Amino acid sequence: MSQKGKQRDTSSKKGKYLDRRKFLAASGALAGTGVLTGCLNGQDGEPENGDGTDGNETDGDGMDDGETGDGDEEPERGTVAYLENKYPGLEILSPQPENAQAGAREVYNNQFITPREDHFIRNHYFSPDVAAEDWTLTLVMGDEEMEMSMEEIRNDYSTETVTHTMQCSGNGRSYFEPGVSGNQWHYGAVGNAQWTGTPLSDVLEDAGADTSDGMWLRATGGDNPEGEDFFTRSIPMSKVMDDCLLAYEMNGEPMSMEHGFPLRILVPGWYGCNNVKWLDEIEVMDTMVFGPDWEARPEPYTEAGQEYDGSGQRTHTHWQQYSYRIVPQRDERAIHYESIDTFDTRDQMETDEIRNVYMYDQMVKSTIGTPGEDVTVSPNDDGMIEVFGVAWAGDDSVDTVEVSPDGGENWQEAEIVADDREGPYSWTMFRYMWEADPGDYTLVSRATDEQGRTQPREIADQEEGLRGIEGDLYPWDKGGYGMNAYMPHRVEVTVEEA
Ligand SMILES: Nc1nc2c(c(=O)[nH]1)N[C@H]1C(S)=C(S)[C@@H](COP(=O)(O)O)O[C@H]1N2
Ligand SMILES: [Mo]
Fold first, then answer.
1. Fewest CB within 10 angstroms: 12, 19, 179, 271, which?
2. Beta-carbon neighbour count of residue 85 at 10 Å?
3. Of 84, 114, 77, which is closest to residue 100 (Cα–Cα)?
4. In the predicted model, is pLDDT for residue 352 greater than 90?
5. Of 419, 405, 424, 402, nearest to 491 (Cα)?
6. Judging by beta carbons within 10 Å of its beta carbon (0-12, 13-18, 19+), is residue 408 exposed, middle or buried?
7. Model confidence over 239-257: pLDDT tens digits?
8. How far is it, in rounded angstroms, from Cα 289 to Cα 406?
9. Cα(123) to centroid of ligand 1, in Å?
């Protein structure tokens, strides 16, 4: 690690992004980015243009198809064809920035480890195309700055691998009614991969950082185009020291560009948004990012009867303080807290003091992989049909999974077949041998975590204004976050004669 010893200057970015902008300009890619960024990009909860449209001309599907007219040529980066070629298992939502979810549930919910090609992608900005040799990570501690090369990160510390279920906090957003803006994920914005890297505890201890409880680590990506918000998240130091990695490998290979090459922070068990890709800067802080130092507009203002101390429309606070928050009413804006005592999503939602939960630890969830949606199945020789799927619970472990053949009226306990095989941050797999007569069925699964929390049945009406999970209902929220109900992702199957 080399000490630069210079004063910190948040307004100047390092020269490495110039390369990327040059690349984008040369490929003509920048001209096209407005097309999708307007409607998909900014909207993980905070609409940035009132009507949700962008007014740009497209060819109908809003995507550049990347057709070259010559079958042999490699499709151009930033096109649908490029992503389809590289990630054949994914359903593409947008090519620039790249957003794609797992296609068939039979694929993504039946594999313990999700291959790189089947792992969903969620980007707010177009992936930077960078060389590992040129990449450095800056560690900021007070007035000090230190820079680390990828080689130092790889070689100077210990190495760990963690299996982590990555899930976008908007996974399942498409099931909200009334609908909410943002990527319309079904339950395909999830994948389970093995991530290898350097424990952050090694790096921070070596650097003599204050790693006491109550401190925070700012993690900032290097993907924001000029004038856009930094992709910054604040991770509580206790979590950082527990298990977070500076990850550079996915499933034993270098991670692909779209998944954050060459470096991301891996926050095991926590929602995808915390796992900042193209990790560029980390900073040891005694607060989360908020307040005048980090906001563009320090003037206080009042909205919907509430007072706020900044606009949140630029710089480092947007993705931490305004997006990725549970906001139960449309006319409400997220309020930040100086700190939070608990990082458990659901408990926060149920307390009166904390209204706008931060998307940190994932809530318990399960989905069926086999049988697939709308299939006809026939029982085996013993009259049985195998029901198979995955279940996960953030940094808690899954206690039980139940399966119901009648949309949640009757439940049977499934067998957990990969219990703790890879530690608590990985999903586990369940199997249920179902004795079924011919007919039509609605199959669902529901998991319960080690703390006794169970997936609810449905999403509540917006008018109910629920704050926590009550009466088997998941509260509606304007960003469509954190939803873990089982009915929206049910499987309709027909059983025929054996
Ligand atoms: N720098 C940066 N990091 C990021 C994002 C981003 O847009 N920029 N998206 C986040 C979100 S919202 C998710 S869900 C995960 C997705 O990781 P994946 O694309 O590898 O599946 O990356 C997170 N890290
Ligand atoms: Mo996400």
1. 12
2. 12
3. 84
4. no
5. 405
6. middle
7. 999 999 999 999 999 999 9
8. 47
9. 5
Q: What is the pLDDT of residues 355-395, one digit of tens each?
A: 888 999 999 999 999 999 999 999 999 999 999 999 999 98
Q: Relative to the alpha carbon of 167, which ligand is closest?
A: 1
* CA 279 to ligand 1: nearest atom: 1
Contact 36, 42 (CB under 8 A): no
Indicate the top mutation candidate among 168, 194, 229 to test ligand 1's pocket, ranked by most ligand atoms within 8 A of CB. Answer: 168
* Cα gap 326→498, rounded to integer Å: 47
What is the DSSP track for 44-74? SS--SSTTS------SSSSS-----S-TTSP
Distance in Å, CA 22 to ligand 2 centroid: 28
Nearest CA to ligand 1 atom 24: 276
> Given ligand 1 and candidates 220, 275, 320, which is best to mutate, with the most ligand atoms within 8 Å of its CB?
275
DSSP-based three-state secondary structure for 442? strand
**Cβ partners under 8 Å of residue 70, min gap 6:** none
Q: Is 172 helix (H, G, I), strand (E, B) or coil?
A: coil
Pick the atom of ligand 1 nearest to 124's CA.
7
Name the pTM for this structure.
0.85
For residue 259, give the ligand 1 atom closest to its CA: 20
